Fold FtsQ-type POTRA domain-containing protein.
Amino acid sequence: MKRPAGPPAAPAAAQPSGPQPPAAPQPRQKPARGSNRAPAGNAAARKGAASRAEPEAVTEPITLPPSATSAAAGDRPQARKATKPPQPTTNLTTADLPPTNALPTNALPTSAPKSKARKPKAQNTTARRSDPQETAEASDAPLTARAARGRLRTARRARKQYERSEVRRFTSRSRHRRNLWIAAAGTVVALVAFVLVGVFSPLMALRTIEITGTNRIPAADVAQALDGQLGTPLPLLDLTEVKDQLSEFSLIRSYVTESRPPDTLVVRIVEREPIGAITSTAGFDLVDAAGVVIQSGPDRPEGYPRIDSAGGASGAGFQAAIAVVRALPEGIRGQLDTVTAATKDDVTLTLGGGARVVWGNAERSEYKAVVLAALLVSHPVGSVTEYDVSSPDSAVVR
């Protein structure tokens, strides 16, 4: 049932028909403690003036019907007792009360409705849990030793977690640098370990020697010369010893070694190319452009010109003759029979048909070779006896 917005209005008091009793005298209030009391004469004068100004009002207490008072008492808390002394009341009869339709419309009903709205128990429970008075009473309750120890452990755990989070926050940069250093050190250690395993592991020992690029030199002879390196790890091969072993072969002009893991050594050889034959005490020596003897024999090697120079293979004439021979195209070099170099500025060629070519020095040899090829086309061998290309811009045929 809904409560009224304000206190119930009391019904209007009926005027008694009989003689009215005199008003009860009101008790005299004591002045406040510590206040200054006015003289008695002044108080009497003020009282007389007030009585002349306004007549005293007579108030009579009335008694409410029992139904109204009981309904009001059931729906609202009891009011505090008045501090004033009780005043005399006047008993009224039923005839003196006003009719029922004269009561105000906002008066409380005499009987409660049959159905009453009930609040959910959950709401009441929540209200009881959130009651500040109960919370205050619970907080003011004395702690037991077990509860105090539990709170202490909780506080210690929270403190440790906070300290750990602060340490992590303030040491984040140093930990990042430390991780970088650890990663770098780990990489270096891994590389060193890999190198050590590759150097000293028997898995990297030399077992196969592969020789390529040989023509005049048997590859088996070269591999046999290097068999002293077998069983040595590839990173520990003695390249100086390999060089000394290959220098025994005069036909090897240069070489390149390649380690092919896990157990193979590849040797690529570039042989010397013979360019001509020079006379010697044994007959003829086949030499390359550096004057190194490739082979010797009593007979002149076929397909190679004879080089006749002052000072032998170590003279300046020999180097000029070699430069001229290397500048000639393959077609003219096949017709060449003899190269004579008295000095480095006097080189003369003799072709197979007996024709003579005056070359001069070794300068502009490529251009002179082009001019000589053109003259051989316009004046074949046999039609002339001499071709002079010492001045290639003004070549002469005789």
Q: What stands out?
A: Residues 274-397 form a domain with the Rossmann fold fold (CATH 3.40.50.11690). The CA atoms of residues 53 and 239 lie 142 Å apart. The two ends are 151 Å apart (CA to CA).
